[in-house]
Amino acid sequence: MPAAKRDVRGTVWFGRTRSSVASTQHAATSTASDHVPNNQTLSHATSGLTGLPPQPSVPNPAPREILARNPCEIYEPCAGIYYGRILVLARHRQNKANLVHIQMQAVERSAIEMCVQMIDRLAHCSIPRLLDVFQYADRFLLVWEPFECTLHEALALSCRITESEVAQILWPVFKCLQFLRGQSRELASLTPRDILFTEEGEIKIAGIENSRHVDPSRADAMTSTLNALRSILEKIMQKNGSNFTWSQEIRSFKSALAKSTSARCLDKLLQHTFFEQVVGGGGLKVLVELANKTIFYTISFPPEDSLAKTGPLGKPVEPSTVYDIGGCQ
User: Which residues cross the membrane (predicted)?
Assistant: First the structure.
């Protein structure tokens, strides 16, 4: 049996063919108003924390059941994928078109319970939906709705990214950060690998399970996240080359972002005229298709009961190493 091989994106394939990632029936739904800036949403945005409307009181959701069973009874592992972290691509055993990503955690049960409650409380259209949670042996497995690729892969394409696509990438990111600020949370980090593209051409933000508490009234709240956004925008604009001419709107937005130093600046940034070109959903589907058609996949055929697993907590795992996920037969 040949050893598992990585492709250029770090994917270890364990099937004879690559299945198309389809949205699961549990996938989060959203309306156009969640993504598209319009006069109503812009007029309701505020310019600082002192003008923020009071947050509505939402009852905490009922604790999610952690299923004490082998996830391979429900999902069939297909591939180990490395996006800066190990994920398992799996498909539902009954409905083969339903694909998911499985993330493995080696933590205490109390920690995973708190993490899952936080994820459920922070449900948002720009955050991947957590579908199931399993406990098998000494591991916990988080089952997420799938995504196609990340901004990291999109930046590796040879084609240029249009200004409209830049706006459609950044708009849901800023809306997600605005939502998290209202919940007194912030992302622990934000890189191009954390900006996920779905099959439908929508944007999701990874890393909510590692988010942390923040006091939005502090002058330096979300400063590190805004710094990360400046770096991401710079990488996007550099991708088109030094001879590419960007509009006054995006250059003005870049300048405004450079001057933004805390969470209180998010509302004003969302009001910027640069985002007026965001219309409808699915505007990034062509970019997703190009990324998928450009990336080459290497396929291997290891035993059916093997898949990538996590190493010691906090240490990266080599994607080419194949381990048992938990008795998949």
Answer: none
